[in-house]
Amino acid sequence: MIKYLKDLECINLERLLLLRGKELSLTDEECHILLLIDTFVTLHKKMITPSLLLKYSSLTPHEMDHILDSLLKKKWIFNKNGAICLNHFEEKLLENKEAPVEEKMNMIDVFEEQFGRPLTPMEFDSIKEWVQSGYSEEMILKALKEAVKSQVLTLRYIEGILINWAQNGVKERYIDEKPQERKVKESHYHWWEDE
């Protein structure tokens, strides 16, 4: 199917490489070399060698070796009887492998969930001002947690907590640490030797 779409020129792999290069962890030089190799493959050039690539590039032989070595390690190319070949080039460009995104909770959603109602525009602006004045989202959410524990769900109370923590130098209220193990001194008394 991919070959069919490419043959119909529905997919332009060269443009796709240029647009997705950064996302695929490719440097500009690596993209350039891959484009050269793909061009030679399209022109049915059977023996693509580093010296051939050097003729069409401004890179030094040392830089070319470094880039080809990097592309080999990233499995974009492979060596077949001294010739450079692309390794599943089209599939790699077309695959949609998104990194697992950590679900970060939206702070406004957390407030609305805890308050049990949508926030008013003024409340929304107040929270925005806290962030702009230097409070981290984590700190604001911890202040909200403190307000929920105290069963006082007002932004004024939460702001009071933040101000109190800032004045007293408290950076984080709830430090997630393992409780320190209680150390008991070892006794070297051998009770069985007293007899």
From TrEMBL:
Residues 108-171 form the DnaB/C C-terminal domain. InterPro entries: DnaB/C_C, DnaD, DnaD-like_sf, WH-like_DNA-bd_sf. It comes from the Bacteria. Signal peptide: none annotated. Belongs to the DnaB/DnaD family. This is DnaD domain protein. The lineage of its organism: Bacteria, Bacillati, Bacillota, Erysipelotrichia, Erysipelotrichales.
